[in-house]
Amino acid sequence: MEFKAKDVAAFLKGVVIGDENVVVSNVSKIEEGRPGTLAFLANPKYEHYLYTTKASIVLVNNDFNPVKEVSCVMIKVKSAYDAIASLLDMYAKTMPKPSGIEQPSFIAENAKIGKNPYIGAFAYIGKNAVLGDNVQIYPQAYIGNGVYVGDNTIINSGVKIYNGCKVGSDCILHSGCVLGADGFGFAPEGETYIKVAQIGNVEVANNVEIGANTCIDRATMGSTRIGNGVKLDNLIQIAHNVVIEENTVIAAQAGIAGTAKIGKHCIIAGQVGVVGHLKIGDGTQVAAQSGVSKTTVDKALLRGSPAIEVHKYNRNLVVFNNLAELSKNVRNLEKNIKELKEDKCQ
Which sequence positions are flagged as catalytic? Predict the structure, then answer.
């Protein structure tokens, strides 16, 4: 599909700087811009690409003013990042979506399927499962007995949802993610361990996205709960009875230990580890590779392992970076003191 600059600007409520009749039919990164494509500039670090890009149109923030001549058409918008997100979402919605039930697939006789489903080949829908309207189940997905999946949710290839788990509406589960595997519950018995039965489930609320190969364990009792609007990256481990409250985002390779509670609107970066049985306060941000070992207040900014407040970590880091020089100075001081004592004794 082709769009003129003035049409894009009208959709985004932006202002065209340049030829409003320039036409684009695709998008590109600003550093790899090609004629006939639309790019965006949101991060000032990429500004230098604006002056060399071959893209026909570039979205920029309202407060941006170029310092050199620009050959492309610019569209000024409130937020270039939000604007490109809106355009990509619009483009995605125009893509054709599969429908119908492919064969071979297995659907239990008492499973309930809503309107306009897509169920791909080799998918398995278990007994008493309930699928809402417009649900898409891609090939080789497994939906266990008694599973509930809400309207408009997309279950990609290879997803496994164990018995009794619930997934809300407008969710996206990416390939290989697992909901409802047993929590890591074992009790010592002499020199061995016996398994503690995990009889709970996983409950995922609405508008949640779960990345590829992320695992969310079922609760020992009750539910492991993922709140509305939560976004989980690839390769994350969420243990039994964890609660993640609404609109929290967690990046790849993080691990949340059992019964931990993560508050609302938190940002947890990649490779963060969270100890079990603690509470991370609302609005907390945790830097990459940190280890959170104790309960935090709301809106904490944490870094390090064990994680401490960022301002304290930064002060400590200055000392650490100068540790070799400080150690040398201490040795010199010790040597001088020793010499002074020897002189005094003489």
Answer: 240
